[in-house]
Design a protein that fits this description.
Blueprint (H helix, E strand, L loop, with lengths): L2 E5 L3 H6 L9 E5 L20 E3 L1 E7 L15 E9 L1 E2 H9 L5 H4 L5 E8 L10 E6 L2 E7 L7 H11 L7 E3 L7 E2 L5 E6 L2 E7 L2
């Protein structure tokens, strides 16, 4: 399985990091070793002093596909989830300044939180999903998939031009504004609508 991550998919998040608005989706990958094991805390890596949370809606692919047309993309997933793309922001900044890949800042062990899954039919509209992240019971990110620059089906069409999608692959669809630093003993909880999808502790 592979984790396919989309960057810069919410305008306000692009602005808060002072990035350039892309003309195409920004795509990067995380290995399966980046997945934080269930019921395990997230350990801040020793190579970073500025790890940020980025809450994201997730899509789990349920069939093999290549060059998928947007109008058929809905057939390639049944489940929607929520997760975190942890980012070593200080390291990412250094890599970006040199024009180097981001993997060390985005794909380290434990950098991908994958919460519970729900049937997409439980949601009225996948292009209008409200979701949020609480840090120590305070809302720090509050997003809606209606604000995506590229919606879920468009992302599946785009990504499948470059990578064959396989059963179990997960797409991280991008994060809204409000990203920030984590410190030891932080408690992070993610919600789709009013349903808790994950709860983790930072060490």
């Amino acid at each position: 399985m592979k984790l396919i991550c989309i960057g810069r998919n919410y305008t306000e998040h692009i602005e808060e990091l002072q990035n350039e608005k892309p003309t195409d989706p920004v795509v990067f990958l995380k290995p399966d070793t980046a997945i934080l094991l269930k019921k395990q805390p997230f350990f801040i890596p020793d190579f970073s002093d500025d790890v940020h949370y980025e809450v994201e809606v997730l899509v789990k692919i349920n069939r093999v596909g290549k060059h998928i047309d947007k109008k058929f993309a809905h057939k390639y997933y049944n489940e929607i989830g929520l997760g975190i793309d942890f980012t070593a922001r200080d390291l990412q900044g250094k890599l970006k300044a040199k024009g180097l890949p981001w993997e060390k800042a985005k794909s380290f062990d434990g950098a991908a939180v994958i919460g519970n899954w729900m049937d997409k039919n439980e949601l009225a509209d996948v292009d209008n999903i409200g979701f949020l992240l609480k840090k120590n019971d305070i809302i720090v990110q509050n997003g809606n998939t209606s604000h995506m620059l590229w919606k879920i089906n468009e992302l599946i069409e785009y990504v499948s031009k470059y990578f064959t999608l396989k059963i179990g692959d997960i797409i991280f669809t991008g994060t809204p504004a409000g990203v920030g630093k984590v410190v030891a003993n932080d408690k992070l909880k993610g919600f789709i609508e009013d349903k808790e999808m994950f709860s983790i502790t930072v060490k």
